[in-house]
Amino acid sequence: MNLPTRSLFLKILLWFWATILLTAFSIIVTLILQPGGVSSQWHDPLIDTAKYAGATIVQEYEHHGAQGASDYLLERARTTHLQACLLHLDGTSILGNGCERFGRIAHSATMKGKPEFNFEHGLATVAVTVQGARDDKYIYVTESPVGPRAAVATNMAAVAIRCLVALFVPGLICYLLTRYLTAPILRLREASQQLAAGNLSTRADKRMSLRRDELGLLVNDFNVMAERLEGLVNGQRQLIYDISHELRSPLTRLNVALDIGRGRKGNDQAFDQMQQDLERMNQMIERLLTLARLDAVAASVPFESLNLTDLVANIVHSAGFELHERSDRITMNSREVFFVRGNMELLQSAIENVIRNAIRYNNSEEPVQIVLERMESSVRITVRDHGLGVPSEYLQRIFEPFHRVADDRDRQTGGTGLGLAITERAIRMHGGEVHAVNAPPHGLAVHILLPLQT
Amino acid sequence: MKQDRVLIIDDDMELCRLLSERLQPEGFAIETIQDGQIGLKRAALGQHDLVILDLMLPGMSGLDVLRNLRSHSSAPVLILTARGDDVDRILGLEIGADDYLPKPFNPRELVARIRAILRRVSRDTGNSSIVIVDSVRLEPSALKVWVDETEVSVTSLEFSLLEAFMRNAGQVMTREDLTEQVLGRKLGPFDRVIDVHVSNLRKKLGRFSSEELIKAVRGTGYLFVARSGSR
After folding, report:
1. Which of A53, A179, B148, B212 has the highest CB neighbour count under 10 A?
2. Element of type H or E holding A438
């Protein structure tokens, strides 16, 4: 997938993911910060455990004094991360560190005379009264492994795994959802690019239009639009083709009739003018038909491996032939033999049109220069004349049908206004490109780039 | 003087009338037919010296008529093709047309092409000495070609082309020379008719001969390879 830098895909994915993670995080935080009781199902086991531990501590305290019992408590705190304290009934502490914070719970346990629970900061605390050997009563307060903080405090590896799972499961779900939403958009974009590039038979994937959501509707509409566009453009092309085709029969008859007329009435300037215009119309129709066919059958033209250097040499040879005694006015230079994949007839007429054009406008003593050179994986054919060149604002438009830079001059020299349009389409069909630049000091250089055969 | 009989197969009736009017004073006996099927039957009778065939016929297409005609006749055929339709033109030449003329055409050009083809045909039958180069034997009187005692069927134009090659075996023939000798006209700019004919001939000979008899000489033309010299 070719994603734009600020892609919708990333935006949706990150926002969804962040939302899920933030929600989860805030739930955990509220659980930890929210004070509350310990659910009753835990009471009995917690009391039992606390009583047992408390009894052990008291026994230790009464038999071996404060030092031994304190060591025991510290050892317990170190291994379990659970704080515990032993207090007198009046709340003064006997054993343990930081017992002040247990003062309140110890007090209420003494008042009520039964075990007391507290749930704070994600951890449960339980206070129980413990009966000593000499009728003394003590309060034993201990934290218990109940609540989310207990998990944090006990096993770091397990916590890490849980965090990773919590991170990536929503991540995966978000990824799939986002893909489901954005992949059709990207594919639709591809189709519209194809359409814009002139590939009018392109349609968005049929499977996408089976979706019954908004995207499915959009894909459907896109395809309807493409269909209509193709119909319109093809209709227009067919019209041009049909008109040119139909014009041929009367033109042929006109040619013959004119010749018969000439035979009967002898030569006349009017006949010459008619002859010349007929020739021009003949040529225009030929080019129009070529153009129409290029647009219509682009996909079905057979390609073969071609020696481009030979092909250009042949064209140059023929063009030199056309120039008769002025054949020194065209030169060709190629350092290697280049092979391309293409259709010979089309490439020939494409390159021929450019060369003919160059010859037509080369009103200088310098010859028309043709150079073939390697440009990375392409071959560049440069056709340079030494004529007047083309105003820079028209440089791209000379490849449009019937575009004329200088009307009168062009018509005098017999141009049809279609040659370069044919070139442009034929070269594009071969995956190449053509553009024109003004070459200093004066003259036009047309560059044809064609991909080399691999 | 015997008139050359020319058959025109074209669906445009008015054009046929104009062409008859234009061509008869040139000394041709013109017969025109507007339908491909009927035209094919007439042409197959072998009563004509030349067939002018429009490739854009309705019904049975011109290419089909030509293909059918070639299966039992080697009569010269001039095809009329659509301007700009290179594919049809090349196909027509490959199937065995002698030459082509894009429509609309200048009638003088048509007359020149007709005369060129007829000139070649009458010359073919004139020279009767048998030519043998290596494994290839040419019998001008019967218009037959043999490679290693196997008869190769060629059109009359291919026969003339091969004869030109074999009479100049071992020498490079330029495309200009070949066009003038075989097609009877000057090589035009961007004219590839002779190359299509050479390619057809190479294909036909290649079926019977393991070695390449006609070689392309880059930028110039073609060469008939002679190992033992000609007789």
Report:
1. A53
2. strand A433-438
Number of A/B CB contacts below 8 angstroms equals 81
CB contact under 8 Å between B191 and A286, yes or no, is: no
Using the predicted structure, report yes or no on whether residue A122 has a pLDDT greater than 80.
no
Q: Which residues of B91-124 are buried (b: 16+ CB within 10 A; e: fewer)?
A: bbbebbbbbbbbbbbbbeebbebbbbbbebbeeb
CATH (one of 3.30.428.70, 1.20.1510.10, 3.40.50.80, 1.10.287.130) for A198-299: 1.10.287.130
Give yes or no: A121 in active site: no
Whether residue A105 contacts residue A141, with contact meaning beta carbons closer than 8 Å, is answered with: yes
CATH number of the structural domain spanning residue B30: 3.40.50.2300
ipTM above 0.90, yes or no: no
- Within 8 A of A345 by CB-CB distance, chain B residues are 86-87, 90
pLDDT of A37 above 70: no
The answer on pLDDT for A75 being more than 60 is yes
| Contacts A293 to B, Cβ<8 Å | 84-85
Using a CB-CB distance cutoff of 8 angstroms, which residues of chain B are in contact with residue A317? 219
Contact present, B103 and A248 (Cβ < 8 Å)? yes
CB A107 within 8 A of CB A91: yes
Q: Does the beta carbon of B26 lie under 8 angstroms from any beta carbon of chain A?
A: no
In this structure, is residue B176 part of a structural domain? yes
Q: Name B18's Cβ contacts closer than 8 Å, sequence gap at least 6.
A: A253, A256, A257, A260
Question: What CATH superfamily is the domain A301-451?
Answer: Histidine kinase-like ATPase, C-terminal domain (3.30.565.10)
Contact state of B104 with A321 under an 8 Å Cβ cutoff? no
Average pLDDT on B132-159 reads 84
* The pLDDT value given to residue A325: 55
Q: How confident is the model at residue A71 (pLDDT cuts 50, 70, 90)?
A: confident
For residues A443 and A366, what is the distance between their CA atoms, to the nearest angstrom? 10
Give me the mean pLDDT over the A265-288 stretch.
84
Compute the average pLDDT of residues B151-177.
Answer: 88
The whole-angstrom separation of Cα A361 and Cα B190 is: 20
Number of folded domains that form chain B:
2
Of B18, B187, B218, the CB nearest to A260: B18
Q: Which helix (H) or strand (E) holds A303?
A: none
Mean pLDDT of A114-136: 77
Residues B75 and B135 in one domain: no
Annotated catalytic residue: which of A107, A245, A435, A447?
A: A245
Nearest Cβ partner for B15 among A256, A315, A346: A256
Least confident of A1-5, A95-99, A234-238, A244-248: A1-5
Which residues in chain A are closer than 8 Å to B187, comparing Cβ atoms?
321
pLDDT at B3 over 80: yes
